[in-house]
Amino acid sequence: MLLQNSRAVTAHWNQAFELSVYLTKKAGAERATALAKQLRARADVAEVRIITAEQAFADFRETSGFGKALDVLDANPLPNTLIVTPTLARVRPRARRC
Fold it and tell me: What is the DSSP letter of 21?
């Protein structure tokens, strides 16, 4: 029963594969949007989500417990980020031909 339950739980783990692409601070919101558009056009990319530096900072402020302590920062240290989900066909290893 344990083995059967383990198989059921792990059967879809490969579908949860995501890549986080952290952009440089120079790459603003326009560059993040343009790059996301390029990636979405690829056949091997299923989805691209943009997390702006502002969204990330607001989420961190809310969930970290640091709240007002973050007010001492001169600038937001977090970058714009793309969360890229490849298509399932690209996640699975290819069979080797001999």
Answer: E
Q: Are strands 81-86 and 19-22 parallel, antiparallel or unpaired?
A: antiparallel
| % of the chain at pLDDT higher than 70 | 73
Average pLDDT in the chain? 83
Give the H/E segment covering residue 32: helix 29-40
pLDDT higher than threshold 60 for residue 30: yes
User: CB neighbours (10 Å) of residue 14?
Assistant: 11
Task: Tell me if residue 85 falls in helix, strand or coil.
Answer: strand
Burial 30-56 (b: 16+ CB within 10 A, else e): eebeebbeebeeeeebbebebbbbeeb
pLDDT higher than 90, residue 96? no
Apex 17 CA angle, 22 and 95, nearest 5: 120
